[in-house]
Amino acid sequence: xxxxxxxxxxxxxxxxxxxxxxxxxxxxxxxxxxxxxxxxxxxxxxxxxxxxxxxxxxxxxxxxxxxxxxxxxxxxxxxxxxxxxxxxxxxxxxxxxxxxxxxxxxxxxxxxxxxxxxxxxxxxxxxxxxxxxxxxxxxxxxxxxxxxxxxxxxxxxxxxxxxxxxxxxxxxxxxxxxxxxxxxxxxxxxxxxxxxxxxxxxxxxxxxxxxxxxxxxxxxxxxxxxxxxxxxxxxxxxxxxxxxxxxxxxxxxxxxxxxxxxxxxxxxxxxxxxxxxxxxxxxxxxxxxxxxxxxxxxxxxxxxxxxxxxxxxxxxxxxxxxxxxxxxxxxxxxxxxxxxxxxxxxxxxx
Amino acid sequence: xxxxxxxxxxxxxxxxxxxxxxxxxxxxxxxxxxxxxxxxxxxxxxxxxxxxxxxxxxxxxxxxxxxxxxxxxxxxxxxxxxxxxxxxxxxxxxxxxxxxxxxxxxxxxxxxxxxxxxxxxxxxxxxxxxxxxxxxxxxxxxxxxxxxxxxxxxxxxxxxxxxxxxxxxxxxxxxxxxxxxxxxxxxxxxxxxxxxxxxxxxxxxxxxxxxxxxxxxxxxxxxxxxxxxxxxxxxxxxxxxxxxxxxxxxxxxxxxxxxxxxxxxxxxxxxxxxxxxxxxxxxxxxxxxxxxxxxxxxxxxxxxxxxxxxxxxxxxxxxxxxxxxxxxxxxxxxxxxxxxxxxxxxxxxx
Lengths: 350, 350
What we know:
The structure is a homodimer.
Chain A: E1 8-13, H1 22-35, E2 39-45, H2 47-55, H3 60-67, E3 70-74, H4 85-91, H5 96-105, E4 111-114, H6 118-129, E5 139-144, E6 152-155, H7 165-183, E7 189-193, H8 204-215, E8 219-224, H9 227-231, E9 236-238, H10 241-252, H11 254-266, H12 270-288, H13 292-295, E10 298-301, E11 307-309, H14 316-331, H15 334-344
Parallel strand pairs in A: 1-2, 1-4, 2-3, 4-11, 6-9, 7-8, 7-9
Antiparallel strand pairs in A: 5-6, 5-10, 10-11
């Protein structure tokens, strides 16, 4: 039986995110309904609270429970968004994150998804699922919109702050496998973020990473600059998690910045106000494409399992998309493709 | 006699920039005309070519030459935009950059300005003018637009790729003095770019820089995140030149990205086409505020003199603004304010 013939079960952290559990429960009900039974969800968290949220979505939720596509598993502890990840994982043994990941590890679900504390999901996933053999550092990537039709997967965006060249190389390899599997891109182009296109431009770490990437079997296009991300044409942009996190958050702030600029423009006079009013739908459309809610979440790559991380501010729609993204990650066998790429590569860890 | 009563002479690299010498000569003529004799310009470069360009701007250029507000000094060598900076400075001894900086160093002009090879201007300025006592690394900053009325000065944006904590602290000090002098901001707020607001978040270098900035006399507001730049409210954002350069170029690519997105929106149908047409003026206005041409150039801080760096793609208007920016940098005594700040600080180099 191939994976495609099988129903997929996603274990969802019902307590994760700024609007949990309400937004998570609603998003889960919608994901199950939209998938028409293809996706099952296990909601993990404080059972009583989840059940009371589920009642708000009757009869859809009740029907899904009877059909077995929506289940609840209790977990008493909640890791809050502001908790220090490693300390919280130690003191809150029965957190929805730990219980949910254990279900996935033990085969009760095909993937785990959470819009909760990113650091805690990252640490717990790495500890409980383990790393893919040959990968030193699991990474979190994020697809950025571009001027063309294809996004640019930026990684790492915060999982690994101080990196060595070897890690940047691994990010390129995992990113390439992810883009090939998820977006169907053949031989994704991989660029190394730097401060000039020439091989001699960069900092100590990127100069060394350039060599590793150049010698690899990846479709490495060399150094790329900050402007090449939004311009499009590069499928995977590699950098350390310090830079990637700053860039990602800078990018996420563009819509609010533009909104403030247009409000100021509209305040200049009645003519400007009218133009801004008419422009609003165009702007909304353009900004929607920059909206993380659409993507639903970002993949944690390099662990022995599927762990998808949603945005802390996830709405029900973002949660629904996070669950469907987790389903696709399972169906497309991203981890199998990372392993294939490691085997082809001359840089696999011994 | 205070500086304000004195005419200011700006030495301008006539051969620097993608559209040199034509755009530079035109911009210089416009700067002199607009300042009504307050600013004199010395154009440095290949005399015959410059003279022939000047003839295109008669009678304004001829009048300025007679009044002595526009002069030409010959320099036979031209450092091209793609030349390796240090090699070019060695082989092209009589470059417009070297000759121009010597004029400034020898007191023939109050400042030097160039839209040429940034690396060469940086190296030559540091070598020929020397560093301000107490500054280890001169830096290049760039003002970024924000959602509020004040820009955010990002530095370093490429002069210093691998930095130590001490250098980040110096950038904060110089940036703060620049913003206070040039924008009239009292006690500018200084933020350290990192991946979380907490003092414990950062990479090895920023964690140490945090301590230095916290102990200083600067108005240090702690770590800021990528989203805090465009949001506004922070006057100076400190990072190493690798990150700053990537961020700056990413930011510069936003207008083209938006343009492409609106073109795609307009292609959806006649209604969208009309809306996009109407939105065009609003967009143009908003994008203009993101346009580097307006700022004219970025300051090189920390050298014993005034050296302003224009964008390689400078138009005549950008060159004019670059010259007026150099004038203001002299008038506001930015270097004096950097020295004052160093004296107040407990971290001045012994």
